[in-house]
Amino acid sequence: MTDGGVAQVLLVILRTDPGAVEAAADDQATGTLRIRVVRRREAQLPELVGPGQPPPSGAVPLRMESAKAAADLIVDYLTECGDQNVVAVALDQVSAFALWHVAQELPDVIAVSTLEAGERIAALLRAGRSVASILNAPQFSVTRVLTEAEPGPRVAVSTPAVVAGDEPRADGRWLSFEPDGLHVVLDAMAPQDRAEVEALTASASRDGAVGDDPKVVIGPANFAGQGWAWARALNAHTRAQAVNLAVRTDGSRIVFRSTLPLTVSEWDRPAVRVAIAADLLERSTHVLLEAARPLVAVDAVAPAHGDGAESARRDVEALLAAGKQVALLFHGSEVRDPAAHASLDAWSPFGNPANDGLSGILAARVGNVRKALLRDLDVLRYVSTLDLFDYVPGAIWLPVVVDRASFAPTPEALRGPIPVVGHAPTSSVLKGSRWIDPVLEKLDSEGVIRYRRFQALPPGAVPRMLRDVDVLVDQVVLGNPGVLAAQAMAAGRLVVSHLPESVRRRLPEPIPVVEANPSTLEEVMRAIASAPALYAATAAAGRQFAQKYHDGRASADILAATFLAPPAAGVPVSAPAGGAARW
Amino acid sequence: MTADLDTFAIAVGGDESLLTRVHPDVRVVRVPMSQDVRDPVINRWPIERAENQRPWTQTVLEEQAEAFPEPVYAPWGPRAESVALALHAIDPVDLTLATGNPYVDFTVALALHQEHDVPFVLDDRDSWILDVYTGDLMPLADRIRPWLDYALDVATEMWFVNPPIADWHRREYPQHATKIRVVENGWDSTFLQPENLTAATPGRRSLVVSYIGTINSGLPLEMIGDAWRIARRRSALFSSSELRMVGHFGHAGSMTPEQVRIRREYGPDRMLFVGRQPKERIAEAYSQADVLLFAKEGSGLVTSGKVYEYIATGRPIVSALAPSHDARRVLSGYPRWHDASLESGPSGLADAMIAAASDAVERGDLEDAALEYGTGFRRDAVLARAIDRLEQRLPL
Predict the structure, then answer these.
(1) Which of B27, B60, B75 sits opposite A149 (nearest CB)?
(2) Touching A: B residues 147-166, CB under 8 Å
(3) Residue in B28, B41, B61, B249 to test binding to A, most A beta-carbons within 10 Å
(4) Cα of A151 to nearest chain B Cα, Å
(5) Mean pLDDT computed over A298-303
(6) Which pLDDT score, from 0 to 100, does residue A26 have?
(7) Mean pLDDT confidence for A61-66
(8) Å from B76 to nearest chain A CA?
(9) Under 8 Å CB-to-CB from B332, ≥6 apart: which residues?
(10) By CB distance 3.0 to 4.6 Å, which of A110, A400, B309, B356 could disulfide with B187?
């Protein structure tokens, strides 16, 4: 495909409307062919009109339903063009769809949607760039980016061994961790996916040992940025090297920091998951799997969305079989059974018939999670909030970690004449905002408080928001002490929230959160407003509480003691059953 | 820190001639950008996009804006933050200078500040929240404002390209007025050495009038063509002259149907579209021009970067601008400026062209004064002043 050292490239420009015949003066010199696929008005099937040929009389533009038939004609035409690089340009919508089909049949044809992009790519090919390198960009990797930039001392980078083949496995998995590397089954992959994976495997070499410190991977949920925060805590306070992976659903309104950020669309691609397995999991010693979600879905090359508990189970089994230490981390809705919650708490949002739809969806998910991960899987289980002991037997509390900015010195709360009260729900239903807003708005209108409602704040702006309020009303229906409450405590703000006694008793000391539910909120707020000095000590106690449990050291210590330490002989991997906090 | 080369080589195009000019002390860290709606490679499209591009694109853009109020660019933020923090662990960052657009760059500065107290400067070459062409708030202003509020709160300084935009932000954020600075674009002496430009030859009758810059759909191209036609009828100075339009078409580099029509219409009048000139060779385009045509859409909040290059050349400049256009502030001290407001239409512009052409032929004596005026806006001088001020604020 080269001519005197320069790669030959054919630029094929496609239209699917009759229009005027056009040709640029330099078409022959630049290897450009302009073709059309049109349909005669009376005909059923389209026909291809070659370069320089006028369209047949009575020709009409193609419609989308003819795109596949057009693609068949184009495939035949391009096959006859001989052995050269082809860049095909779609000048209209139907052409684009037709060329999409062409790319499935002829994966080495580069199909593009603008003439300018086609010209750029043709130039790259002529300059010696390969088709594969244009079609399959390397997966995002922090290590690769920094290696290419070469800051600081030179870092050795190895490419993990990946073995790809077509033979399906008896266990149905498309990805497995084997002694000689990752095994990938290419059968059943779409052509583009296959090409991407093959491009990944093309440079295989086994890497050597990289030290004895635990290598921890946390993922893939990263709710409230906690995967990142726990990883950071481990890195700061233990010998472990921890990273987190975050797969965020499309349309997430708040994005939290992570070591390897991915959208679910990216994660869907098999090559991305092979890269996760190769770059992160293969090298890991410990994997903390969050929220009953799969990390790579070893059982499904095209995973279904919504409920991945079964896939998560297969991932856990595969990692255990590969010699990794694996633990589960539960955040909330994946294990909090709505019916059970409603029976435990009179104010549960799941007792409200208006939320029956949501309750049904969550209940189904919880059922699948229990079946897949909680019944007969002997691994450590962590929960991020104390209320979840009711749903995860034998769990260990892994406290949420708040950022250091939350601990920055702030003016003392409740010193002004009128308390400033904030409410910042990420989910109005689960926080009980329908109860909170009317009460706080009413009190604001009476001049008892000043009410500030926050939504969609950048995560980094939350400490600043908290600095400007005296009181945070977190939630009044769910009964869980979440990340925002911990941040508010760290900032020395008074937290008002619903925490049942059963949850409060799980720690040896009082939790400095003022109790309120929908029926008591107004009374509580009036009491605070009328005697703020009485509550200032509670606000100050919140800072000490947050320093003890939520600045990262406690979480790092718990993981070090329970997960990273080798299991003692005779001690089962699972923590003792019971509802008390283990810490 | 910037995007990967394939973002430019494949997706959006770019002027790679500048890459060889990057100072060897500057290490470039390239973080790959997922192209999503900008990906022209159909092989990689999901079938949903291939079947129905517009709704797919709309959905993706809306989802991206949910995460960060800047669709198309939003997905780059989490990756860039991750790389920046890893980089800081290897080679600690002392100062972050984040230039928008794209404004996702600001998130990297915020991340380094949040995690490691690295001070930062927000360098806004446009305006994130304000539509500088209309003076209205951007459609996503409600989503942008919490980010901008927070970023300004913790930034060391925020720079804007001209006094009107800076003043708007000082009025919006009086508590941060002293952080808000004007740092004009200026012109880059790396690519343009006025002393090396071919001297204009007064007396020559075959003049070249050049527009040098991006040819956007907002450029009054037809008015310019009409004015040129009128000027050629009115003045023998233009009898064998050319009007050259030197520049890239829009963002993607392709002509609109209207631009194609205009090219065809005014071609016989010697209005020539010569295409893009790489930045590295931009001096050639200026050398070949006897008169420079400056036309830019926008009004009081818009200056444009190109006006600084123009005044660096010492050439006569004819302009077609709205009365309140901020470029007038820059041009007002230039001794070879021949102004036509947009309201004066093609006839007024034609008269200004004739005046500029006469200047080119008869007033070479003005060149030194014009060059001296332009020197004050040289970019290294502009930046040196900005850096001096910044150093006083920073504990570096």
Answers:
(1) B27
(2) 147, 149-150, 153-154
(3) B41
(4) 7
(5) 90
(6) 73
(7) 92
(8) 10
(9) none
(10) B309
Q: Residue A260: its chain B contacts at CB < 8 A?
A: 82
Strand A325-330 versus strand A286-290 pairing type:
parallel
- How is residue A19 annotated by DSSP? -
Tell me the C-alpha distance between A195 and A436, whole Å. 54
pLDDT tens profile A121-168: 999 999 999 999 999 888 888 888 888 887 665 555 556 667 778 888
Which two three-digit tokens encode residue B58? Answer: 């709309």
Would you say domain A215-397 falls under CATH 3.30.380? no
**Inter-chain CB proximity B86 and A142 less than 8 Å:** yes
Closest chain A residue to B62, measured at CA: A251
Q: Are B308 and B330 in contact (CB under 8 A)?
A: yes
Cα of B85 to nearest chain A Cα, Å: 9
Instruction: Tell me how far the alpha carbon of residue A27 is from its chain's centroid.
Output: 46
Whether B44 has its CB under 8 Å from any CB of chain A: the answer is: yes
Domain locations along chain A:
2-135, 142-151+158-201, 215-397, 405-550
Within 8 A by CB and 6+ apart from A226, the residues are: A331, A384, A400, A401, A483
CATH number at residue B333: 3.40.50.2000
- Cβ pair A127, A50 in contact under 8 A: no
Distance from B43 to chain A by nearest Cα, in Å?
Answer: 6
Which residue type sits at B373? Y
Interface probe for A, chosen from B2, B43, B85 (most Cβ of A below 10 Å), is B43
**List of chain B residues with pLDDT < 50:** none
CATH number at residue B65: 3.40.50
* Structure tokens, A423: 């409410």
Calculate Rg over the CA atoms of chain A: 30
The reply to whether B17 and B163 lie within a common domain is yes
Q: How far apart are CA A150 and CA A147, in angstroms?
A: 5
Instruction: Give the residue on B whose Cα is nearest the Cα of A252.
Output: B67
Average pLDDT estimate for A33-58: 90
pTM of the model: 0.90
**CATH 3.40.50.2000 is right for the domain spanning A405-550:** yes
Asked whether the beta carbons of residue A111 and residue B53 sit closer than 8 angstroms, the reply is: no
Q: How confident is the model at residue A579 (pLDDT cuts 50, 70, 90)?
A: very low
Instruction: Give yes or no: residues B154 and B22 share one domain.
Output: yes
pLDDT tens digit string along A365-390?
999 999 999 988 999 999 999 999 99
Calculate how close chain A gets to B14, using CA atoms only, in Å.
10
Please confirm whether the linkage preceding B102 is cis (ω < 30° from 0): yes
Crossing angle of helices A532-549/A521-530, nearest 10°? 110
With an 8 Å Cβ cutoff, are A146 and B86 in contact? Answer: yes
Tell me phi and psi for residue A76, to 5 degrees: -60, -45
Question: B79 and A252: CB-CB below 8 Å?
Answer: no
Same domain, B38 and B158: yes
B250 touches chain A (CB under 8 A): no
Whether the CB of B79 is below 8 Å from some CB of chain A: the reply is yes
* pLDDT over 90 at A330, yes or no: yes
Q: For residue B247, what are its two tokens?
A: 């520049």
What is the ipTM metric for this complex? 0.90
A2-135, which class in CATH? alpha beta
Residue range A321-329: mean pLDDT, rounded: 96
Set of chain A residues whose Cβ sits within 8 Å of the Cβ of B111: 257, 460
- Containing structural domain, residue B277: 194-375
At residue B376, φ and ψ (nearest 5 deg) are: -65, -15
pLDDT mean across residues, chain A: 88
Pairing of strands A59-60, A32-40: antiparallel
Strand partners, B249: B215
Q: Are A257 and B147 within 8 A, CB to CB?
A: no
Query: What percent of chain A has pLDDT above 70?
Result: 91
Cβ A35 vs Cβ A95: under 8 Å: no
